[in-house]
């Protein structure tokens, strides 16, 4: 059965993500390099499918999450039509399911971070157990700046990683951060000087994990997750409600339309 599952993973065909490798260490690759691995509905669905498949193969001990091309992930694909408020709420729910499956994946997860990491592309690594950063990183949580809330139920994860003070700074102000500042915030496990060193660093860390006994590793991960975020799902429904409302908010529309402008923003009452 294990061999059959490993073979099935190797043969999975998806348009926006792919699974590389065999044995205990697999690479889960965001594969839309032409748009800096921007997130659309297909990527969310296929990433969820790939994570679920990896979780069902007991031979897999470590999953290395990385992005193909010049960036890890540039966030939401702005070409995708948001649709109705209900569509936005359903999309938020699907994203939260995917994010939760990554956060609680049985194998240890290692994110290799480079280039643009915007919005969802900034919080995907936060759901991983370890993060390795390259000096090319430009990380921005721009949801508030474009008139939306951070969804996927990722705020508890972000707060747990950098603390409430830094989480407020990063999300409310929408600043862009580089490697050393994020490292000072405790965002990264380790860092490298250039993108070419990332895979080697990730696989070296994966080798350390594989040397450890499987069951104690899995139990320790699950216990730490449960202890660190006991109420993480308590307000998850508010993500979905808020994103549905903000899609129709006049202030949110103004924020989106003026995000790249230097002109003063004028807010209207919603």
Descriptive overview:
With 270 residues, the protein is an alpha/beta fold. The protein has one domain (2-228): 2-enoyl-CoA Hydratase, Chain A, domain 1. Helix content is 44%, strand content 14%. It is built from 11 helices and 9 strands. The chain has helices at 2-11, 41-55, 85-103, 120-123, 155-162, 164-173, 179-184, 198-210, 214-228, 236-246, 250-258; strands spanning 17-20, 25-30, 62-67, 108-113, 116-118, 130-134, 138-140, 176-177, 190-192. The chain has a 6-stranded mixed sheet, sandwiched between helices. A 3-stranded mixed sheet has the order 5-7-8. Strand 1 and strand 2 (25-30) form a beta hairpin.
Task: Give the arrangement of secondary structure elements.
Layout: H1 2-11, E1 17-20, E2 25-30, H2 41-55, E3 62-67, H3 85-103, E4 108-113, E5 116-118, H4 120-123, E6 130-134, E7 138-140, H5 155-162, H6 164-173, E8 176-177, H7 179-184, E9 190-192, H8 198-210, H9 214-228, H10 236-246, H11 250-258
Parallel strand pairs: 2-3, 3-4, 4-6, 5-7, 6-9
Antiparallel strand pairs: 1-2, 7-8
For this entry, give a set of tags.
alpha/beta, 2-enoyl-CoA Hydratase, Chain A, domain 1, six-stranded mixed sheet, three-stranded mixed sheet, about 270 residues, single chain
